[in-house]
Amino acid sequence: MKVLVTGAAGFIGTSVGKALTDSGDEVVEVDLMLARAHGSTEPPPGVRRLDVRDAVSWSGLLRGVEVVVHQAALVGLGARVSDLPAYASHNDVGTAALLSAMHDEGVARLVLASSMVVYGEGRYVCTSHGPQDPGVRGVDDLDAGRFENRCPVCGGSLEWALVDEDAPLAPRSAYAASKLAQEHYAAAWARQTGGNVVALRYHNVYGRGMPRDTPYSGVAAMFRSAVERGAAPQVFEDGGQMRDFVHVDDVARANVLATRAVGETSRGFAAYNVCSGAPVSILDVARAVAGEGRPPEVTGDYRLGDVRHVVASPGRAQRELGFRAQISPEAGLVAFRSEPLRA
Fold it and tell me: Which parts of 144-247 fold into alpha helices (H)?
């Protein structure tokens, strides 16, 4: 099968391209090569330097392509208002241009790299009042170190629950809004053209090749960098934030499975959590990565736009894509201590 991969030189795109090639696919790889993401503007061997926002002008590359795997995106929290145009340009306009070019060339299958951030906060339950929507955490509570979401009925702390793909979508940052917009564009394209989309909502991806100390660094890489400097990993809030950490090799496998499912077992638009299914606290992630180094420091600091807990249900991906993570966070985060990072 001939597959075009955007963002192919990135952390996840590199692993996806290799997994597809290893599976016997013919892979066409493109990447804009933003210096802030890669540290270099020179594409690696086999990758063409192209901008998805100009996809209509290079749509000839799509001839004969059966599936597009769209990894290209500006990532990070997008905490500054001044970040909004960049996210809208790279993520939203880029995706729209790619979908238009696909339609022009008769390519009807898309695997879209989405994200858990489209959910905003995860699911919450009050032991007395059942499921609750806690809304956005207030600055006064955060300043006072009250980090848990509270029941809007009784004011008690809410307990987290697994988030499935039918949960309400409520992005809390510029990046999150742009990822949800990508899903909406892709779903509209599928309805208008009869195309098929599998959107993979990645949870916290880590592993070899993570960028080091850039806006594209994930928290696991930031912890690693601190350890290598001889510093204590800095943990925001109280470290009790629950997340799902999934290894990049598992993410790559999920993409291969999705290229087989889109338009076959999965039609129209369908979204899937890509996760390990093993929740872990941010403080425990820091401890696992620190190993024998300096223990993590819980700072109490916070970032507006961060959510308290978001933990995924792996069930739909297991049932419909046949995806089950093979690397547990317990083993993978320990191994990550020695996996190479990208400069």
Answer: 174-193, 219-228
